[in-house]
Amino acid sequence: MKPGNYTRRRFIATSAMGLMSLPLLSKPVHRVAPSDRIRVAHIGLGIQGNAHVNWFRAIPEVETVALCDVDQVILGNTHKRFPASKQGARIDTYTDFRRLLDRKDIDVITCATPDHWHALIAIMAFEAGKDVYGEKPLSYTHAEGVAMLKSLRRHNAVFQLGNQIHAGENFHRVTELVQSGKLGRIHTVRLWKTGGSPGLGFPSPETPPDTLDWNMWLGPAPYTDYIPAKCHRSYRYFFDYSGGVFADFWCHIADIMYTALHPKGLKSIESRGERPYDGIADTPKWIEVDLKYDDLDVFWTTIPPVVPGSDKMHIGAHFEGTEGSLTCDYNNIFIRFGKEVVRDLPEVPRTIVRSPGHQQNFIDAVKTRQQPESNLEYAREMTIPMHLALISFRLKRKLVWNSQKEEFAGDDAANFLLSRKNRSPWVM
């Protein structure tokens, strides 16, 4: 890892699961003053990365200063759209994010890379004195999430997970309704997202285009020959880089469950499903997950459950209480008491302070040095069941989880999958 001074520091394994630990910075880190302009750089410039550029450009106190992608075509196309900041300064371009992190004048980075890069880039950004707006899922492995939180605390950094639905009015209202007690005690939650991994056929390896740094794209993931179907948007259908549709959407809808109920004491995880049979993709074609908490049962399905309004929802959550139920997606709410279905309960007051916007909330946090709404500690807790469910899927059996120790009870094979040894030079 040649570029940059701080990036020559190496990751150290600190536990049997290979958690990454970073040394303390040897000199104070500059933090932006509340009155200052926030200088932002964007890493990963696919569809979501371009959305990041647009979202943050819309914030008056933000200046875009740099763009980065390992694919020169994608980088060039984005730079054509955004050649200069709103303030008129030319935006610099990079193909190696480490050179960007070396710049002392950058306050914030956004990360919209493939999932297997999320944790590593965030940790290196924290060490470089940058705050991070990172795309979901939070991390590729459970161990990476632990390492991210340790690093954030060590460097007093600010982090926001890019589950922008968290800031939506519908989710705030669902939380108020669920917490009001009108539905009684919530004992069951059903979550779903339709669709799964396509097979992608059986393509042969090719020579990577000269405009793509394939080795850098792989980064910490195992080396494999270049196949276009493994790259860019379809990367998420391979366990080496992601966890399929389930990993992509878990946090979007599980978010409302964790916000409204704060479930504790996860005890067991059991996943069922199958992989595609018509191609090289290996993440779930469909998946069902049973999660048991201390006082709550949670079920994930690929097909919507038979509940009010779900037939028109490609993603959703259904809360079952002793007095009634509530079904929602990003924009709709259906409340059922017996045969009566209503869209709201006017008697339940609006007590939650509404978000100024997910990205604005993050920028405000950068200025105040307070953690934002979808902060790393919250995001890590919400992400844990996703990681465990995919381990259960891969092992094809029920798993018992110790929430206090954050490990599987007496299960070496399952505990082994809580982490992954990164490819050199990204580990020591």
C-alpha termini separation = 11 Å
- Number of domains in the coordinates? 2
Q: What's the story with the biggest beta sheet?
A: 10 strands, mixed
- The chain-level structural class is alpha/beta
Summarize it.
The protein is an alpha/beta fold and 428 residues long.
Tell me what the structure shows.
This protein has 428 residues and is α/β, with parallel strands linked by helices. The protein has two domains: 6-165 and 359-375 and 412-416, Rossmann fold, CATH 3.40.50; 166-357 and 392-408, Dihydrodipicolinate Reductase, domain 2, CATH 3.30.360.10. It contains eleven helices and 18 strands. It has a ten-stranded mixed beta sheet. Strands 5-4-3-6-7-8 form a six-stranded parallel beta sheet, with helices on both faces. Strand 7, helix 5 (142-155) and strand 8 form a beta-alpha-beta unit. Helix 5 runs antiparallel to helix 10 and helix 6 (169-179) packs across helix 8. The chain is globular.
Keywords:
428 residues; alpha/beta; Rossmann fold; Dihydrodipicolinate Reductase, domain 2; 2 domains; 10-stranded mixed sheet; 6-stranded parallel sheet; 18 strands; 28% helix; disordered N terminus
Q: What is the strand and helix layout of this fold?
A:
Elements: E1 12-13, E2 20-21, E3 38-43, H1 47-57, E4 62-68, H2 72-81, E5 92-94, H3 97-101, E6 108-111, H4 118-127, E7 131-134, H5 142-155, E8 159-161, H6 169-179, E9 186-193, H7 214-218, H8 244-261, E10 268-274, E11 286-292, E12 297-301, E13 315-321, E14 325-328, E15 333-337, E16 340-342, H9 358-368, H10 376-395, E17 399-402, E18 407-408, H11 412-416
Helix pairs in contact: 4-5, 5-10, 6-8, 8-10
